[in-house]
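Q: What structure does this chain adopt?
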Amino acid sequence: MILTIDIGNSRIKWAAWLTERIIARGVSGYSSENAADVIDGLLSALEKPQQVFLVSVAGEQLYPVLSDWVRQHWGLQVERLKTQKQFGNIINAYDDPSKHGADRWAGIIAACSHFPGSSVCVISAGTAITFDLVEKSGRHLGGYILPSYTTMHDALLGDTANIVSSSEVQYHDQGIPDNTDDAVNQGLHRLIQAGIRELCRLAQDKMDGPVQVVLTGGCAKNILGYPDMPSMHHMPDLVMQGLYDIMKQRRTQKS
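A:
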């Protein structure tokens, strides 16, 4: 069994792999204060894996916490994914690939593998909404980053003393809003909806042939509920798949 772990800005996810397939998975929210307890709670019930692969965008502070736990309980070293300049025929657009999130890189690899011969627009909707455009040749063009609903909601209420609104993130459309909660809710969702539509249109204009739009991330279901959106492939395990594929190949090459 191989264990893949994805540490985001607000959630820790894991997936257990056997014979190239996910056989179990788990997820939990966390904060900097309770991260060690969350890691212990998530992993302590699992059987010892053969290998542990990690992708993390949470900075350096959580890596030693996870690494120490895995070493003490399983006697294993955590193998961490870092963004490369090239993987197979896929070439990263960033001059400094280390500045391109490893989770985004994993998503690119998995999406291109799933849609060989097609251009892809990879959207990851989490604490931020990231876009990565990759031509069918494998050339990564770069991408865009939008704030999430929660990020914009918190910023709006933090900077506007006279607005009071709940943090409900589910999209609902019941006509022109006649109260503050709905005005904020619909306004932010429509802004995200318009931004995604525009960037998907731009991706289609910039790349050759039809573009496969691949959507992942914890807020993906909200986006799928928006009306009049381009066709999207929802792949919740996209980052885990890319992490698994890259690290397995790296292991094979070393051996």
